[in-house]
Amino acid sequence: MGEAPLQKLEDSLLQEQSVTLWVKREDLLHPHISGNKWRKLKYNLQEAKQQGYDTLLTFGGAYSNHIAATAAAGREYGFNTIGIIRGEEHLPLNPTLSFATSCGMQLHYISREKYRLKNEPDFLEELQRQFGKVYLLPEGGTNLLAVKGCTEIVQDIPLEYDYICCAAGTGGTLAGIVASLEGEKQVLGFPALKGGEFLQQEVEELVIAYGGQSYSNWQLITDYHFGGYAKIKPELIAFMEQFKQQHYIPLEPVYTGKMFYGLFDLIRKGYFKRGSTIVAVHTGGLQGNVGFKERLGVQV
Ligand SMILES: *Cc1c(COP(=O)(O)O)cnc(C)c1O
């Protein structure tokens, strides 16, 4: 397992606003089990092993970072993996799914309608009947063991800071950070989806289920979804490109690009008190960039 070092950013905007910004490079944790997906899988893999499972089954879209990470983890830790993929098969496989199959993952495609049942007990039982004894990981890998893994993101930051920021999909990572801080500091979550307000309740429930307590030192910043999940706008791509050139940190357009774009916009608008120190968590996910490049003809 690699390290997730802290990298301090130098930028004239940060100087003007007297804000210090560190990036927690979770993207460097592992070459294939990227960023927060590694944190989320860690205790699930241990649990699966302890309970004697030899197969992991999970869900995702065709470009899912979680599908890629689960496939890689299966290969590395000796599990068979089954990916239930939303939508129809398209050949040749995109880079995410071709990576997953190269790790040995078995892919099964289901319709979008059926996919909506992914958390329904009846459907999960049906899958268990079809595939035998499998360790089920929910979409995005989010469950309480995933939250536990994500608490370690925070334990791994030997710095004084005032704010911590992360991108949010299912909210599992955000929940782990909030639970770990136990009311200290301010936590900002940037939903990648349009209508990300629904995460308020989801994260609240995860935090309570995990630690038995709720906290009010966190909030969602819902203005930077860029039209929704996997929607890509030229100004976002331009920002990511400039960010990479300036800081040598690659971003992707689904999660981390939006978060950093939003964070810099908030800094520009004077959202953070002068003298504040911010830690921004780079949750990884760079595998998806190969697919974006192909699909959209953009260089990301
Ligand atoms: C999956 C993912 C997220 C979202 O994590 P959640 O725990 O589902 O909120 C954020 N960033 C990246 C890069 C991801 O791959």
TrEMBL record:
The keyword Nucleotide-binding does not apply. Keywords: Pyridoxal phosphate. Residues 2-284 form the Tryptophan synthase beta chain-like PALP domain. One of its GO terms (molecular function) is D-cysteine desulfhydrase activity. Its cofactor is pyridoxal 5'-phosphate. The modification N6-(pyridoxal phosphate)lysine is found at residue 37. Coiled coil: none annotated. The active site is at 64 (nucleophile). InterPro entries: ACCD_DCysDesulf (IPR027278), TrpB-like_PALP (IPR001926), TrpB-like_PALP_sf (IPR036052). Belongs to the ACC deaminase/D-cysteine desulfhydrase family. PANTHER family: 1-AMINOCYCLOPROPANE-1-CARBOXYLATE DEAMINASE-RELATED (PTHR43780:SF2). This is 1-aminocyclopropane-1-carboxylate deaminase.
